[in-house]
Amino acid sequence: MKKGILFLLVTLFTTMVMAQNNQGSKKPEEQIRKYWFVMLIKGPNRNQDSATAAKIQKGHMDNMDRLYNEGKLKVAGPFGDGKDWQGIFIFDCATKEEVETLLKTDPAIAAGRLIYDLRPWYTAPIGSFVPGKPKQAH
């Protein structure tokens, strides 16, 4: 079931991205490059008191803001069903080692509240999450 949801999420995002080509005359399939997909999963250390958990969460959010502003984190978001999958990140980094170094700066990962599954992921660097139908290329 989890693999099916992940496949659907990736397929939906890739389709949306490819439909919103705004990178000139290159076809989306000619622009495909590697990104890094991170599945954030409930970690083994989730027994902090509420004040500590809130501090860790604030640090987690601040870290995401920093990585976004540095151009490294392209997509981030939580899942809302309360199950083991907590959220996703998509990074734009040269290497897996760079992503792992950045992940270690996340207080939720450092505290063991989150663990991750890191995979190379390929798509064209186009598109957005703007609601509605994509604008048609002319």
TrEMBL record:
<feature type="signal peptide">
    <location>
        <begin position="1"/>
        <end position="19"/>
    </location>
</feature>
<dbReference type="Pfam" id="PF03795">
    <property type="entry name" value="YCII"/>
</dbReference>
<dbReference type="InterPro" id="IPR005545">
    <property type="entry name" value="YCII"/>
</dbReference>
<protein>
    <submittedName>
        <fullName>Uncharacterized protein YciI</fullName>
    </submittedName>
</protein>
<dbReference type="InterPro" id="IPR011008">
    <property type="entry name" value="Dimeric_a/b-barrel"/>
</dbReference>
<keyword id="KW-0732">Signal</keyword>
<comment type="similarity">
    <text>Belongs to the YciI family.</text>
</comment>
<feature type="domain" description="YCII-related">
    <location>
        <begin position="46"/>
        <end position="121"/>
    </location>
</feature>
